[in-house]
Write a structure and sequence with these properties.
- The chain is α/β, with parallel strands linked by helices.
- The protein has two domains: 6-141, Nucleotidyltransferase, domain 5 (2-Layer Sandwich), CATH 3.30.420; 156-301, ATPase, nucleotide binding domain (Nucleotidyltransferase, domain 5, 2-Layer Sandwich).
- Helix content is 39%, strand content 22%.
- The strands form four sheets. Strands 1, 2, 3, 4, 5, 8 and 9 form a seven-stranded mixed sheet that branches. Strands 12-11-10-15-16 form a five-stranded mixed sheet, with helices on both faces.
- A hairpin with a 3-residue loop joins strand 10 (163-168) and strand 11 (172-178).
- Helix 4 (141-151) crosses helix 11.
- The radius of gyration is 19 Å and the shape is globular.
- It starts with 5 loop residues before the first strand and ends with a helix.
């Protein structure tokens, strides 16, 4: 009998990356093993997103060097998850993917890399690991997060037919569950504009207003110290109120889409960093929930949802 591989999921983000073995618990449910994490802390400054979109494929020397170093660190991260030599490896990442899904064409929060999966595979093999098959195309982190919340142990979308999953950290990711199927907003018919495509006023996008990393950056650039969530001052409250407005706008846009199809938007899940922040602010969470007109609002503590979803999505699509 051939030895069984260990399934490893990788979640690449703007501030760092996480990886873990995705396995089965005693009840036969998929669960996430011990999280292994890293922070980039390499000082990389992304190329303005509009320039990336205007000049696809024109990667700068700084992007090339940074992406190469990050691939090596990702390989070390994955290798640290297992003492077994035979693995599968699935990747979730933000940004606009290349046509073949093997790399990132544009990304607001990191270096582009068209050959990300090929380079990661080579780096893993150089560390003595064997992949059982070709790596599946990169799973958008928003979709991966929704799959993890739906299928992994501890997720907040178990048994929910129609929902919106908003994941926030350095950026904002959104995916919809429509009659049980997890879909990216660009996969809906008609597609829904994403947070970075929607205006939040004064030249900002809704992603700028909602993403915890961007809220913190705005706070620090205005001279704030610490975190706006713990400051309590007027300027901090204004930023957090704007975040609430942004989340409510994202939910309302999705509700209209579901209503137009005769479907009820049952639950909105706030996942990753934005979920943690709202779970720690009970009064603000309650006020936001009251604004949603009967739609259930929930937060998730499943930090490994995107990396679990990167594995589980391809299991579902291959079955």
């Amino acid at each position: 009998m051939d030895p069984a591989p260990q399934m490893i999921g990788v979640d690449i983000g703007g501030s760092g990356a996480r990886a873990a073995v995705v396995e089965w618990d005693e009840e036969g449910r998929n669960c996430v093993g011990e999280l292994h994490e890293l922070s980039w802390e390499d000082g990389f400054e992304p190329i303005p997103f509009e320039e990336q979109l205007a000049h696809p494929g024109e990667v700068t020397a700084a992007e090339e060097a940074c992406a190469s170093a990050r691939v090596e660190r990702l390989a070390e991260l994955v290798a640290g998850c297992t003492d077994w030599w035979l693995i599968s490896c699935d990747v979730a990442a933000p940004g606009l993917p290349t046509g073949d899904g093997a790399g990132v064409l544009a990304w607001r929060n990191g270096p582009r890399r068209a050959t990300l999966l090929q380079d990661l595979r080579s780096a893993l093999e150089a560390k003595g690991l064997t992949l059982i098959s070709s790596m599946a195309p990169i799973c958008p982190d928003s979709v991966a997060c929704a799959f993890g919340e739906q299928l992994a142990h501890g997720g907040a979308l178990h048994g929910i037919s129609n929902a919106l999953c908003i994941s926030g950290g350095s950026g904002v990711g959104e995916a919809a569950v429509v009659e049980g199927r997890c879909l990216g907003l660009n996969e809906l018919e008609p597609p829904l504009a994403r947070a970075w495509e929607l205006s939040g006023g004064d030249g900002a996008s809704l992603e700028d207003l909602v993403a915890p990393g961007r809220v913190l950056a705005a706070w620090r650039s205005a001279g704030g110290e610490g975190f706006p969530e713990v400051d309590g001052g007027q300027e901090a409250r204004a930023l957090l109120d704007a975040r609430d407005e942004g989340v409510a706008a994202l939910v309302e846009r999705a509700r209209v889409w579901f209503d137009a199809r005769g479907l009820e938007l049952e639950r909105v899940v706030l996942s990753q960093t934005i979920g943690r922040l709202y779970s720690e602010a009970e009064q603000r969470f309650a006020r936001l929930a009251a604004r949603l007109g009967g739609i259930e609002l929930a937060t998730s503590s499943l930090r490994g949802a995107p990396l679990a979803g990167s594995v589980l999505r391809w299991q579902v699509e291959r079955s």
